[in-house]
Sequence to fold (381 residues):
Amino acid sequence: MNDVAIIGVGLHPFGRFEGKSAMAMGVDAIFAAVADAGVEWGDVQAATGGSWTVANPDAIVGMVGLSGIPFTNVFNACATAASALKTCADGIRLGDYDIGIAIGLDKHPRGAFTEDPALVGMPRWYAENGQYLTTQFFGMKANRYLHDHGISQRTLAKVAAKNFRNGALNPNAFRRKPMAEDDILDSPMLNYPLTQYMFCAPDEGAAAAVLCRADIAHRYTDKPIYLRAVEVRTRSYGAYEVNTTCAPVEEDVSPTVYASRAAFERAGIGPEDVDVIQLQDTDAGAEVIHMAEAGFCADGDQEKLLADGATEIGGALPVNTDGGLIANGEPIGASGLRQIHELVRQLRGEAGDRQVPGAPRVGFAQLYGAPGTSGATVVSR
Fold:
């Protein structure tokens, strides 16, 4: 079995790009990643990619070069990019090829995610009563969690304000204007306790990562980042997560718990070893919840950690240093590879004004994709 290294990352900025297709953004991300890796497109021997809005992202080879490589399409909702990364890495680990690329791209219309639930096997009434990928579900989930663990609504505002500050330092972010906590709290209430600016926005963008066998990584870069683990897990029967009304009342833990534990076990690294963290912040409540689910704190400890500045760029647990989804928005297929792009930049010491101090060595990324798939990734220098 081969170890795997990330030798290049590329990103098309996230935001709104009138007249530019998701595929065109994907082309830009691919060429940026290939250039960053110090290879040519002809050196890439396999690709994996995913998108919500593009039915066949494999067609991108017609835009970057018809080299005949195998291309595997994947889709796992918001966990799509983690799935693409894992599929690419597994091919290298098994010795099928030496160099591969993982790609994510999407272009969403303005507004909340309200796609047809039938696309993921759910009955239409699930959307009609406000529970499918809408602000209603996220509000209900955050409200219950805050109530159960004694966390204030202001803590949610702290999460959003922190991510807006970090986004202001990120030239590729969608929202690049800091926002005060009080302004976030005073913005229109969408679904209690979540106000307008506690949510991410569906938008547009693309990202890519070039992977290779770890033993040949130094041929291409003097700063390889090693992919220690990528684990994907689905929800168990009864888990308290999206689509709970199709499960019994008894609750289990989120698939994020299982994916994170599996990733740390495979990597031989614990949460206490992580220097920089990327968590899915579809809303501010999600970041709070995922902090505990991924193992970085106990349920209820988030209030003090946020108040003490632990999750700031200079804190003990820097979370979403590039602004996360709240500042970047979410083109579903690309979000997870945006996380990897940020972790690679951080571990290389190339994150500029948002660089975590102290030469970080270990990074962690987490994604949660409805209706119940979670991905967790561990990388290190």
User: Anything to note?
Assistant: The mean pLDDT is 91. The chain has one domain: 4-111+199-380. The first helix runs from residue 22 to 37. The domain at 4-111+199-380 is CATH 3.40.47.10 (Peroxisomal Thiolase; Chain A, domain 1).
